[in-house]
Amino acid sequence: MNELERVDAYWRAANYLSVGQIYLLDNPLLKEPLRPEHVKPRLLGHWGTTPGLNFCFAHLNRVIERRDQDMIYIAGPGHGGPATVAHAWLEGTYSRLYPEVSQDEAGMRRLFRQFSFPGGIPSHAAPETPGSINEGGELGYSLAHAYGAAFDNPGLVVACVVGDGEAETGALATSWHSGKFLNPETDGAVLPILHLNGYKIAGPTVLARIPEPELIKLMEGYGYRPHVVAGDDPAAVHRLMAETMDTVFDQIAEVRAGSGDRPPMIVLRTPKGWTGPKRVDGRPVEGTWRAHQVPLTGVREDAGRRAALEEWMRSYRPEELFDGDGAPAEDVAALVPKGRRRMSANPHANGGELLRPLVLPDFRGYAAEVKAPASAATEPTRVLGAFLRDVIVANPDNFRLLGPDETDSNRLSAVFEVTGRVWEAEGLETDENLAPDGRVMEVLSEHLCQGWLEGYLLTGRHGLFNSYEAFIHVVDSMFNQHAKWLEASRRIPWRRPVASLNYLLSSHVWRQDHNGFSHQDPGFLDVVVNKKATVVRVYLPPDTNTLLSVADHCLRSRDYVNVVVAGKQPVLDLLPMQDAVAHCTRGLGILPWASTDEGHEPDVVLACAGDVPTLETLAAADLLRRHLPELKVRVVNVVDLMRLQPASEHPHGLSDDAYDALFTPDKPVIFNFHGYPSLIHRLTYRRNGHDNMHVRGYKEEGTTTTPFDMVMMNDIDRFHLVIDVIDRVPGLGDRCARLRQDMADERARARAHTREHGEDLPEIRDWNWPH
Amino acid sequence: MNELERVDAYWRAANYLSVGQIYLLDNPLLKEPLRPEHVKPRLLGHWGTTPGLNFCFAHLNRVIERRDQDMIYIAGPGHGGPATVAHAWLEGTYSRLYPEVSQDEAGMRRLFRQFSFPGGIPSHAAPETPGSINEGGELGYSLAHAYGAAFDNPGLVVACVVGDGEAETGALATSWHSGKFLNPETDGAVLPILHLNGYKIAGPTVLARIPEPELIKLMEGYGYRPHVVAGDDPAAVHRLMAETMDTVFDQIAEVRAGSGDRPPMIVLRTPKGWTGPKRVDGRPVEGTWRAHQVPLTGVREDAGRRAALEEWMRSYRPEELFDGDGAPAEDVAALVPKGRRRMSANPHANGGELLRPLVLPDFRGYAAEVKAPASAATEPTRVLGAFLRDVIVANPDNFRLLGPDETDSNRLSAVFEVTGRVWEAEGLETDENLAPDGRVMEVLSEHLCQGWLEGYLLTGRHGLFNSYEAFIHVVDSMFNQHAKWLEASRRIPWRRPVASLNYLLSSHVWRQDHNGFSHQDPGFLDVVVNKKATVVRVYLPPDTNTLLSVADHCLRSRDYVNVVVAGKQPVLDLLPMQDAVAHCTRGLGILPWASTDEGHEPDVVLACAGDVPTLETLAAADLLRRHLPELKVRVVNVVDLMRLQPASEHPHGLSDDAYDALFTPDKPVIFNFHGYPSLIHRLTYRRNGHDNMHVRGYKEEGTTTTPFDMVMMNDIDRFHLVIDVIDRVPGLGDRCARLRQDMADERARARAHTREHGEDLPEIRDWNWPH
C-alpha cells in the first residue's frame, strides 16, 4: 500500500469499528452471517458526523508521522463518540487503559458491546475517552477549549473539528476570534477544521448553506486563511486533504516563525453519514439529516435490514483491516504514531500528568494589619491583586487570570505592575497594559473566559476567572458541564487530577446599587450547589485576610470548582492573619469579640456569611450591646458554606454535635446571608433547631440606589436584624417595644436621607467592641 | 438652519441633556455659574457610548421624517441610558408618561436629578425607558431582540446599535446570522449599526482593532452589505452619515421589493466620549477608555473641574437648543417625528399596546381518551404538537414555535403538517419542512431562540420555546434578565401586559438515559424559582391531558415566564379531560383511584410531581396495595409547583389549611420529584409537618443506561419508594422486613437485567387499580 492507501485503510478500519459500536453485540469480525442476537436490542449513537471525524483522525496521523508533530484532537461534534473510541482502540491506547478491551476479537466484542450500553460507556466523547478534553454533549465549546489548550504550549498543535451544527451556538460563534489572544511564538497553534455535513438533527445548518464565497469571507473576517476540501469520492478527497494538510502545516510553521500571516483553517465539506447506506426504503440517507443518528433501524428484527447492515460493514473490507485474531492489520497499524505522539495518548489530553504545582508566595505576607477587629478597612480584591501579581511572577508560563474586561473594575489592578492583557490585534498609543504575552485575558465574553480556562486547566495548568457576580450566570451551563466532567473523571483511575476551576465573583449583588436591578443576582451559588458535593466548594470570606487565605487554599486544590465571593469595596478588617487562617481552616466559627455570650449558652445566634451581611450583623450586634447589654448574643461567621451541610452530604460538612455547639439546638438563629435565603435552609434543613432558623438574604428587591438602601430593601440591614432579634427571642417583644420602634424609625430616616441626598448612611466609626 | 444643522442641533441637545443627567442636581440650564450644590454627590453613568447613541437617534429621526418610516430603536450599549432618556424627553414622550418631568426648566431639573439616583431611574436603558425593549445591563442580546421585533412586522425597520464591547459576547456573535431566518417580504427589516468606539471598560475591543478590510469581510461573510461611516469632525461625519442613511434605506426598500441583494448595515467609527473632555490632568480622555463612565470626576469638590464641566456643557450652546423656559427650541423640535412615528412612542416598543389574544382551538378536542386511569399510554408532546399545529393555523402572523433543532426530536412534528422551518438560506432537494415564511424557528443556539422570542413577545406577539431540559441552562442569564424586565414592567403603569414567555422542556432528565450524564440536569427550575413569585410559574403535567390543559392556560397568560416540563416518551394517561382540567385548575390534588385511604386519614402520603416520578409513585402505590392492602395510602399529584409555597410567598400558594388537608400535618410524606429534591424542601419548609417530608429526586447520579436504571440510580424507583414507606411509617419496619428485602431483590434483579441485556424493565401491564 502507498501512503494514501494506508490512510484509507485506517479510515475504513475506524469506520468499521464505529458501525460495530453502534450495532453489534457479537460476531465483531463478521466471521459468520449476522444473526438477530448479534445485534443490540436498542440502537443508539450518532453515525452522521462519525466518518468525517475518522477521516480527520487518519489524515492528522499522517501529519504526525511525517513531521513528528505534537498534536491533540478535539472533536467538536463529540456525539460522534464511536469515532474517538475507535481511534483510541486502533492506537492501542484503549487496551492499555482498559485491558479487558484488548486488541483482539474478544476485545473488539467488548468494544462494540460497551458503547452506549448500560454499565458501558457514553455515546459521546467524554472523560472516559482517551485523548479527549471536550465533552461532546452540549456542543459549542470545542474551539474555546482548543485555544485554552494551546496557550503557553509552544510546539503543540490543537486540531479542532468544529461541527456545522455546533457552529451556530453563541459560544462557538465568538470563539473564532480567539486568535486575537494567541501569541504565535509563545503559544501553540490551533487548526480549526470546520466540518460541513449540512444537517443538524433534522434541519440544515447555516454555514453549510451560505454561498461558498460568503463563507470564505466569514473565515477571513475572523482572521484565518481558509482552505476548502470538498467532495464525496474518497480517493479524490484523500488526495486533496493530504495536499491541504501539507500546505496548512507549512503555514502553521511559517506563522510560528513570525511570518505575520493569518493562521490557516480547513473547511471540510463531505456528506453526512459518508460511506453509510445511500438509501433506505427508497429515501436518501447518506448526505441527509436521516444519517444523523442510526441510519438503519429495526436491524435485529428485519432480515433485510440485517443484510443491509452486513453489506455496509463488509464494504469496508474488514478482512484487509484486521488479522484473523481481530488485531489491526499491519497497514492500518502503520499509521499509528509512537508513544506520546498518539493523539489518544498525548499527555496534554490528560493534563494532570503534566501538572506542576503553582509556586505560591506566602499569602500571609500580604495581610492587612488588624490592630483591633473592625477598626480599619481595606479593599479585599485590591490586596488579593498584589498576591496574584506575585503568583504571576512566580509562575510565568502556567497561570492565567481571566475575566470579561473587569480586572481593573474588580480592583485586581496590581497585576498590571508585572504583566499586561494579552493582545495580538492592533494597538494604539492610548492603550494601557496590553502585551502580546500578557498573563491577563480579557474579553467581553464569559463563554470565552470559561472555555479558555477549561482548556487551559484540562491540559495541566492553573487559573482564576473573575467576574461580576450577576453575569456569571452566562456560563451556568458551562459550569454544569465542567462539574460533570470533574465528577466523571474522579471515577476514572487513569485521569490524573487537574487544578481546580476558581471563580472570583466580585462586584456582587450588594455593591451593584449603582448599576441597578439587572446587575443584582446572587443565584450562581444555587446552581453550583446542585452539583456533586465531591466537586464543588463555596467560600464567602468576610474580609481581606480571610480572602487571602481562601485564595491560597483554592489555588492549591485539585479537581474542584471553587467559588469565592468577595467584595471590591472597602470592608472592615476583622481578623488578624493568624486568626483568619484558623477561621478559614475551620470554615466557620464564633467571633468572640463581637459576641456577648462569653462562653455561655446564648439567647440568640447571629450568623452571617458574606462581607456585607457580616458587616450588618456586626452592626446589629453592636446595637444590641448598647441597647440590650444583658442579652447574650453569639456571632457566628461562615466562610466555607459547605460546612453547614451534614457530614453525610458533603465532605466538608460539620458533625451534628459540632453544629449544635455553634448554633445551639434550640435557640433562635438569625442568619444574614449573601445570597437567596433558601440556600441556607437547603443546607441546614436536616439540622437540629432548623425550625428556629430565620434567614435574611437577597429577596429579589433592587433598583438603582445606594448600598445601604439595597440592604434595607432586602431587610438584611442592622436595624432589621435587631428587630428580628426582638421578635424572635422569647420575652423580648413586650419588653423592647420602644427599641423596636426606634430601629424602625432609624431605617425610615436612613431611607429618606438616601432618597433626598443620593447619599449613603455615614459609616459607623464608634464601634462599641470591648477591645 | 438647514437640515443637517437641525440634525446637529438635535444631537447637541441630546448630548447636553445626557451630560446633565450624569452630573447635575440643579441649575439645569446653566443660568448661573455651576456651584458645588448643583452637582450630584455621587457621579454615575456611562458617557463613553452616549454621544454615538445620540448621533444615531438624530440621523434616524431625519430618515423617519423624510420617509415617514415606521421604526424602533434598540440601544445595544444600553448602559448609555442618558441617551435613550434624553431622546424620549426631547420627543415629548417622557413628559407625557411622567408628567412631573415636564418639558421645561423644572422638568429638566427632575430629569437630571432622577438619573441613577435613589428613587429615580436606572442608569441603563430599561423598562422605565420609553421606546426601549432591551435592557442595557448584561449586554449581548440587542441584535437578537431586533430580529425578534422585525419578524412578522412588514413595514417596520428595527435600527439596532451594536456596541463593539457587546459584539464580543457569544450571543451577539451568532446573532449576525439571524438574517438567514428573516423573510424580506413578510418580515420587517433590521438595520444593524455596529458602533466602534474602540474600548470597553478598560481594554480595547476586538472588532475595532482588526484591519478594516477584515471587518468588511466579516460583515459580508455574515451576509450584509456594510457601509462605513468614520471620523471625528462632527460636520463631516454628519454629511457622511446622512448620505449613508439615504443609501441604506434605499437598499432596504430594494431588498423588501425582492431584489435578492444582501441587506445593508452600517459600521460607525467615532471616538469614545465624542465631544467630551479631550484631556483631563494632561491625559487623553476623549477617544480612550477613560471616557467609558464619568470622564470628569471630583466636580463637586474641585472648582477647576467644575469649570471644565461648565465649559463642556456650554460647548453644546444650550442657549440655542432650549428656550428660556427650558423647552426644546424650534430647530430641535423640528427633528421630532409626529405621534407614533416617534421612536420613543412607537407602539411596537410597548408591545402590549398591539397585543391581540391568540385564537385558540378548544384543547379538549385533542384529549387522549381515558377509559380507565393508567390503562393506556400516549406521547404527551406528540398530542400537544397537534394542538400547536392548529394554533399556528389560527394565528398565522403572531405566533412562533422556537427551538434548537428539536421540534421533531421533542415530537411536536404535527406542526409540519401546516408549516415549515423558516429558512432563507440555500435549500437542497433532500431538505424537508423548510419554508421561507415558516412558523417554526430552529437554530442550534438557545441564545437566538430566547432572544428572538423575547423580541417577538415584547413587540406584542406570542410564542413557545421548546428545548432539551439540560441545555436550557445555556440561557439562564437571559431568563434572569427577562424575568427582571417583567417584574420591573409590572410596576410601570404605561407598560402594557405582554404575552408570557413559555418554555416547554422536553427530553428531560429521566429520559436522557441514552445521551448520558451531560444531558441530565433538571436545575433550571431552581434558577426560575429564585425570581419573583409575581412573574414565574412552573408546571409539571403528569400526562397528556394535563399537558394540554396547562399549555392552553400558559398561552392565554400575560407577563409571566411559564416553565412546563413534559416528556416525549409514552406516558400513562391518568385523567380524562374533564378531570385533567379540574386537576390543573386546582394545581394539585389526590388521585383517589390510586389511593387506599378512602377519605380517611392516611397512614402515608405518596406525593409526586413530574411524569416519570408520578409513574413510579403509582407503581409503588400498586405494590403497596398488593402487598400491604390494609395500609391507607394517599397519592397526591402536583402539577403547579407554586401551589406548595405558602400563600404569603406566591399568589398560587395554598393556604396552610388546604395544604394540611392534602398532605396531613403529621403523617409521613414521601415526595417523588422530577428535579433536585431541595426545591421541594425549599417550597415547603414553612409548612406543618415538613419534618415528616422525605423527598426523592435527581441527585446527580447518571450515565448512559436505560430509563429504569436512571430512576434506580437516583432512588426514585417504585421499589425504593415502597422501602421508604416501610422505613418511615411507624411500626412497619419490623412487620415488613420480608417485603423490604423482596423490594431490594427486585431492584437488584432489574439492575442486573439492564446491565446484561441493555434492556429496560418490562412495562407494567397488570395494574391492580380497583376500576
UniProtKB/TrEMBL annotation, chains A, B:
First-tier enzyme category under EC: lyase
Region of interest (Disordered), ranges: 263-284
Xylulose 5-phosphate/Fructose 6-phosphate phosphoketolase C-terminal domain residues: 568-769
InterPro entries: Phosphoketolase, THDP-binding, Transketo_C/PFOR_II, Xul5P/Fru6P_PKetolase, Xul5P/Fru6P_PKetolase_C, Xul5P/Fru6P_PKetolase_CS, Xul5P/Fru6P_PKetolase_N, Xul5P/Fru6P_PKetolase_ThDP_BS
Every Xylulose 5-phosphate/Fructose 6-phosphate phosphoketolase N-terminal domain range: 2-353
Cofactors (names): thiamine diphosphate
Pfam families: XFP (PF03894), XFP_C (PF09363), XFP_N (PF09364)
Keywords per UniProt: Lyase, Thiamine pyrophosphate
EC numbers: 4.1.2.-
Domain of life the protein comes from: Bacteria
Residues spanning the membrane: none
Xref: NCBIfam families: PRK05261.1-2 (NF003617), PRK05261.1-4 (NF003619), PRK05261.1-6 (NF003621)
HAMAP family from the UniProt entry: Phosphoketolase (MF_01403)
Family: Belongs to the XFP family.
Name assigned to this protein: Probable phosphoketolase
